[in-house]
C-alpha cells in the first residue's frame, strides 16, 4: 500500500527527534552487552544495527514489511551491523521465525509489540527459539497507568494506527509479557518515549528470561 511505502521511506526521519532525545541511548543499553546468536524482531529500517557489539557473532534481523526490508537490506549490504557476513535479513513476522528450537541466545524487541497482530503468538515463538536462560530485551511504548490518559489512548487508537503503520497506542504489553508461558520478567523500568506525542509517551524497557 502507498501509506506503508511512505511510512517506510520516512521512518528514519520520523524518529530523528526521538533518537536525539534519548531513544538512541535506550537502544544501546538494551543491546550493548549481548553475545552469540541474536534475533531482532521487527528490525524495521535497521536503526538498531549500529548498537550490536562485537560479541554478537550472528544477527538475524527479521521484519515483515517488504518496504522496510528493502531499506534494511540496503543498510546491511553497505556494511552496517557488520554487513552480510554477520547479519542475515529475513522477511518474517515474529509469529514464525526462521530458526530452530533453542537456537538464539537473545532476542531484541524495540517498538515492535505495539504493531504485532498476535502478541501471545510472538512471545510463544520467542520462547521456542530462545535457549534456556536466553534473554528477551524489550523497549516498548505501552498503555498508560492513569485512567484519563488510557481513556484517550482508547479513543484515538484507531486514527493513530492509521497514521502510524498499524501501531496500537493502548496496548498493555507488560501484562502480555508477564502472562507469557516460558518467560519470566526480571527487570522493568518505566520511562518516557522521547520526542513523540503524549498519547504514546508511556514506555517500558527491560528484560525477560527464557525459563
UniProtKB/TrEMBL annotation:
Record-level GO BP terms: methylation
GO molecular function, one term: S-adenosylmethionine-dependent methyltransferase activity
Species classification: Bacteria, Bacillati, Actinomycetota, Thermoleophilia, Solirubrobacterales
Keywords assigned by UniProt, alphabetized: Methyltransferase, Transferase
Domain Methyltransferase type: 40-137
Signal peptide: none
Record-linked Gene3D superfamilies: Vaccinia Virus protein VP39 (3.40.50.150)
CDD domains: AdoMet_MTases
Pfam entry (one): Methyltransf_11
Organism: Paraconexibacter algicola
Name assigned to this protein: Class I SAM-dependent methyltransferase
